[in-house]
Amino acid sequence: MTSHTQPSLPLALVVDDDATFRMLSRMSLEQEDLRVEEASSGQAAIDFAASTRPDIIVLDLQMPGMDGFTVCQQIRRLPGGEFVPILIMTGLDDVDSIAKAYEMGATDFIVKPCHGLILSQRVRYMLRASQNLSALRSSESRLAQAQRIAQLGGWEWDVPQQRMEMSDAACHILGISPAACGHSQAAYLERVHEADRALVAEAMREGAADGTGFDLDHRIIQSDGTERIVHLLGELITDDAGTAQRMVGTVQDVTDKRAAEAKIYFLANYDHVTHLPNRSLFLHRVAQAITCGAGNSVIGALLMLSLDRYHRICDMHGSRSGDQIMKDVTERLQQALSVGMTIAQYAGTEAPILARLADDQFAVFLADLSEPEDSSKVAQSFLDVFNRPFQVGTTSVTLSTNIGIAIPGPDGTEAEQLLRKAAAALQATKSKGHNCYQYYSDAMNASIAARVSLEQDLRAAISGNQFILHYQPQVDILSEKVIGFEALIRWQHPTRGLVSPAEFIPVAEEEELIVEMSEWVIKSVTQQQRLWHKKGLAPTAVSINVSGLHFRQRNIASQIKALVYAEGGTPQDIELELTESILMTDAPSTAATLKELKESGFRLAIDDFGTGYSSLAYLQRFPIDTIKIDQAFVKDLKLGKVDSPIMRAIIGMGRALKLHIVAEGVETRDQLAFLRMQGCEAYQGYLFSKPVPVNQLQHLLRDRLSDDASRTTERLRNRLAS
Ligand code: C2E
Ligand code: CA
Ligand code: CA
Fold first, then answer.
1. How far does CA 79 lie from the centroid of its chain?
2. What is the best residue among 475, 528, 545, 546 to mutate for testing ligand 1's pocket, by most ligand atoms within 8 Å of CB?
3. Which of 100, 255, 281, 458 lies in the 20 to 30 Å Cα band around 574?
């Protein structure tokens, strides 16, 4: 076998035992730009077709050995052989041979001998038809593949004839084999879930009757009993006169899609731990409940609960334990809710809505109460929930809760506003202690408004340079010499005058403004120290209060260091005052931070010592230099007491650990005398000086240079205390 032309041209195989005829055929086909291969026997033709797959075969019927009929039949059985066009060349023009050739799979025939031009034209035509067919086949297979991927099938319903045809894909979706698929609407409806059947039949009937078609989801039961959800879509095709002819449509398996949609909805609207509605769904439902009741004014209540110690438990036992507790809490709240509703003789139709608003916050909306006051019975059942401890592994922990309650107004209240009111009431309970509830009152509005305006003013204060520092001297008890100062921030409010840090520091902490504020304090203190240095004053130690939130910033040690260095300051001249609560949280990183600060040269003090969880352990674990005894103990002495065992113990312990001890809030000579007797080294207090602006310190600092320090400080003390 030989080929003489380029491989990209269509390939024709000429099969004939007559060499002359093969040559003539080759000549006429090559003129038409075909590649030609020849086979002189039936077997050679089959072998070639099996290995090379020609685009067309020109086949003689009469050959010695295997005749053309057999060749045709065998080629059709080859893989891919069913589609190759076969042109039979026959000298026999009897009808029987032609019929038999078609039976064996011939595509067309031509009578031999024939003109070369006719042969080539016929071959060309057959090639074109074969290419079109193959393009159609591949587009059909692409469509079928796409439908399979989309799990989409088609159907056609001849309405007047009541005949319904379903595509193989549609049958597959319904879980029936195409062969067993009946051709009626009833066959389809048979697969539809019993509960949906009437609905689907009605939709199809109506869609055909009014010409609007239909579009719905319904369930089907496949023959093996599997339930799936399908989307059924139908459109009506009418004739020119507008008469309904047939309906065409699709059926698509949307089970997975609907499941994904349901999951997305769940994630967006529910808490994934407790499966309770989240804040946004809760507000939506409350809004619905309130508007439903509009007109006949809903009698209801919104209760907001917050749990104490939830975050502590998560820190200590891991968030999984936190999740487990929240599930237990949910279960108990649900039980308590039904108990509470029974006690309150709840007879409404609207079910209460329980939700988890945040990690440690729950809320419930009670609609349809007989009286708003009945909500207190539910609140009490909720409080009772926390009488019993919760189990975390083998340990049991106690949680407590506080509840704020808000009642919607007679003319309706917005859901968000109602929740805000409950939150305000909840906030108010916190000053009363644990496990109590409180109703919202309008007076709370005023305090909310005040708080909001304080927040806003505070933001403006940071950018508007409204802060200043006051300094309070720290005095050596024996020599009465000033040994340093504590820097205390003051806010010069444009209209309110000086605002106490006790008022704005907690707000700054909550609103996270404290970080910027703390950085400002450190910068200002360092600048001030530089200024004193320039004036030739001796290095002056200043204590700075460090807030918990600031201390928990990432890389806080490096940040503080950088701030001090940036202003040309020296860490050795700065003492950082930390409260016990700061030292208690997250011990490993706290230890590392304190070590880094200490190694950079900062001195470290524990502020308000004795008020928190004063523990010897952290006095030993952390590199502490100073303890500042809280004012409360000093104050005790003033109230008629002449002795304080606690103070004696703290001072004794501090001395044993070789710590520097400073007593705070010293106001009287008696207090000072006691402290001196116990061996306390230094003090701070109104007795010597209140915290004062820096310009009032100049004399004090200058006097430190003079030799007769004790006499001048005595003079100053009199002046400042007056
Ligand atoms: P603190 O750190 O315990 O500061 C001592 C407080 O006691 C100061 O109140 C001071 O004015 C007051 N005090 C001093 N001597 C006496 C006395 O003899 N009798 C009485 N009754 N009080 C005395 P101040 O300045 O109102 O500060 C209150 C708290 O605000 C501070 O308590 C501290 O925790 C915080 N604070 C003040 N400035 C800053 C700051 O710059 N940063 C941070 N994070 N907190 C600050
Ligand atoms: Ca302090
Ligand atoms: Ca203090």
1. 54
2. 545
3. 458
DSSP string, 255-280: HHHHHHHHHHHHHHHB-TTT--B-HH
The response to whether residue 473 sits with its C-beta less than 6 Å from ligand 1 reads: no
55 lies in which domain range?
11-145
Whole-number Å distance, alpha carbon 577 to ligand 2 midpoint, is 6
What CA–CA distance (Å, rounded) separates 419 from 287? 11
- CB 467 near ligand 1, within 6 Å: no
Residue 423 burial by Cβ neighbours in a 10 Å radius (0-12, 13-18, 19+):
buried
* Chain centroid offset of residue 360 CA: 17
- 571 and 602 Cβ atoms separated by less than 8 Å: yes
Q: How many residues does the chain have?
A: 722
pLDDT digits (tens, 9 = 90+) for 496-555: 899 999 999 988 987 778 999 999 999 999 999 999 999 888 778 999 999 988 998 889
User: Do 249 and 110 belong together in one domain?
Assistant: no
Q: What is the CATH number of the domain that holds 216?
A: 3.30.450.20
Cα–Cα dist 344/353, whole Å: 16
How many domains is the chain built from? 4
Whether 616 is in a domain gets the answer yes
**234/186 same-domain check:** yes
Does the CB atom of residue 545 touch ligand 1 within 6 A?
yes
Distance in Å, CA 576 to ligand 2 centroid: 9
Q: Is residue 265 part of a domain?
A: no
Which atom of ligand 1 is least distant from the CA of 501?
30
Q: Per the confidence metrics, is the pTM higher than 0.85?
A: no
Position 39 in a domain = yes
